Amino acid sequence: MSGNKVQFHLMTSWKRSHTQFVGVSEQVDGGKPQIGDVVRVMGMGSVNPPIPSTSTGMKFSTGDGKTFVLQMKVRQMSIEQDWILGDSYIEHTYASPRNGYVSWIAGLEGCCKLENLANNKRGMFFLNTQVDLTTRKWSPVIRMMPELNFLATAPTSEMYIAATDQFGHPDAVLLNNLGQPTEAGKTYLKWSLGSKSDYAGGKGPAGFGLSAAAGSDTQGLFTFQRQPAYEANDLFNAVVVVQAGTTRVNVDFNIRLIRNTDFEMLPIMPLVVPAGQQLGKTAVQTLYVGYPFTHSVGTLGWDPQGSVMFQKWPNRPLSHVNGVFNQLDEYMPGAEFYGMFAPCQQLNGDPGLTCTSAGMFKWTPCLGHTGWHLFCFAGQNPVSGRYTQQHCIDMNVKADPPPVFIPEAKYAKNGQKFDAYMGYKTQIFFGAQDGNPGDFVSLAVIHNKKKEFLPIGSTFENGDCDGQGCATNVAEKVFTWVPDCNQGGHSYEICVEATDGASNSCRGKQQSKSICVTINVKRCLYKADDTQSETLKTVAKCFHTNWLQLWASNVENIHPDDVLKKAGGTVLNVGREYTLKQGETLNHVAGRFGTTLTSLLALNADISSADGVKAGQAICVIPNTCRITL
After folding, report:
1. pLDDT tens per residue, range 4-14
2. N or C terminus of the chain with fewer C-beta within 10 Å?
3. Is the torsion defined by CA of 541, 543, 545, 549 positive or negative?
4. Average pLDDT for residues 365-392, to the nearest whole number?
5. Could you give the C-alpha distances from 221 to 191, 213, 278, 532, 541, in angstroms and in order?
6. Average model confidence (pLDDT) for the chain?
7. What is the predicted pLDDT for the residue at 370?
8. Is the pLDDT of residue 195 over 60?
């Protein structure tokens, strides 16, 4: 936000049966919060005896003496697991961008954590962030499930945790783990486990570690080393911190250890995922405004009790209709997440049942949705209620880019000039591409400054992109022209426009870009095509003269009986260039060289009338020194 004004976004999860909520209707489900309710979270001020923190509700402190009551809108809930999740937004203006030489520390502190935790049982919590507006106007955002699963019996196991560095992610220049400036254009997020203050005086569980994931700028690798005293179904509390430069945030969550025989721990495998995704890591994808995106994963394994149903987190309420989960999300309007599963069946005579499940995310972002969005989900066993490991999609939504003309040497550039010869084929390639691979691009000739399109006899046809066929977001056109014998000296401007897909309310206006090139037809020069078996006689006929006249202008290079077969074409002088003197007119020149005004106008296409010349101008002349009849 502008100046020293900031907006804090808190995403918190609470036991739904917690009695310290204000704003809940007593008439619905025993007074428990429902999706869409706006509630005030009271919290507990002490552990034993349980005393409410204040009479007004739990307070969020901005670090400069100002506090706000925590109002939360319920976005998601689970009746079976007894939790709700919601959002709170708080706006505040600081007197200065930072607290002297250090950051402002804002946060939510209160009580109490769950009773069945192996560590920090009924302990205090402290969700906090650092604010230093001299270096950054935003903080990183972490997304994860409220409860992560690890194998209780495996010696080691690991899971990726995703974060986004809003607005700057992943192009911001930040500090690395040593506090040094990073390479330009790279983002480095510093990952760590929470300190004692992040645990509000508690402590983290033994055997867990966190580091930056190798080869990733925006993911942390959360690891677990089995401890002798740990058993399946143990529930631990952990805090993760991610730092970007002088800004940091933490997230408080739980970890459950489960047996490796549990079906829900089978790995999630890609089904329909864009290329380049590494299984287990966050799938980083680029989306474009107005174009649909689909991402699908699934599981396959043995389960005599039923399939895994996929649920998403944290992106808002799920409604379950005939096995399909639909999502309504104010942050990603129109996005949907489907949990699908097939009946379990016996395959190839193997014992047990093979069950397949799938989760599919679909979204078409529209105008106003640009930026980074992080969506996490997991599969859930409907019998045990346990989740698979989480899977996240990191999406960078970009504005639909306009088409651009391809800068390769093969293709024409704006303002480029081309020379052409009378009688010889000239080809100019135009290529355009849209940065959005899902878009469509077309090329068309448009009016030039003189309101002209194409020269007479020319064509503008589809190319084949080097014989490979063009992708939908690539277009290639070929301009082909053989200038006639009466087009020497003319200069033509060809303008071409590249246009992307049709406009709509979601995508916005159709976009285009144009370039113009100039073709100059050489004056007094004809190029014989080596594929046409031309001779001096056939060329002379085109210019209404005789072969002897042409031979006289090219005697040092051509034998009069030659068929003009030189590879790449044979260039012939069809006359002589003459520079007009002061006071001369075309009629004067025609009389002096024994020719006619009609002939001069035909040889100089850039001259439209006898008066359209001036001193110093070059013209093409074929002198008529004699008349020969063959």
Report:
1. 999 998 888 88
2. C
3. negative
4. 70
5. 9, 5, 14, 70, 81
6. 78
7. 83
8. yes
From 268, 264, 299, select the one nearest 282 (Cα to Cα). Answer: 268
Sign of CA dihedral 1, 171, 395, 399: positive
Q: Residue 238 has what pLDDT?
A: 92
Question: What phi and psi, each to the nearest 5 degrees, are found at residue 190?
Answer: -90, 120
C-alpha closest to that of 218 among 244, 184, 247:
244
Q: Are 64 and 95 in contact (CB under 8 A)?
A: yes
C-alpha count within 13 angstroms, C-beta hemisphere, residue 456: 6
Most confident of 72-86, 437-451, 478-492: 478-492
Distance from C-alpha of 509 to C-alpha of 402, rounded to nearest angstrom:
10
Tokens describing residue 108: 């939510």
| Neighbouring-strand partners of residue 286 | 396
Residue pair 525/574 in contact by the 8 Å Cβ criterion: yes
The proportion of the chain whose per-residue pLDDT surpasses 90, expressed as a percent, equals 27
Angle at 625 between CA 621 and CA 630, to 5 degrees: 105
Set out the domains of the chain in order of their start, with CATH numbers: 261-399 (2.60.40.10), 404-522 (2.60.40.60), 524-621 (3.10.350.10)
Whether omega for the bond prior to residue 365 falls within 30 degrees of 0, making it cis, is no
Note whether 235 and 116 are within 8 A (CB): yes
CB 38 within 8 A of CB 73: yes
* Cα–Cα separations (whole angstroms), residue 55 to 42, 45, 246, 578: 8, 10, 35, 102
Amino acid at 191: W
Mean pLDDT of the region 515-539: 92
| pLDDT, average across residues 112-135 | 89
CB-count burial class (<10 Å; 0-12, 13-18, 19+) for 61? middle
What does the alpha-carbon distance between residue 238 and residue 248 come to, in Å, rounded to a whole number? 17
d(CA 112, CA 121): 8
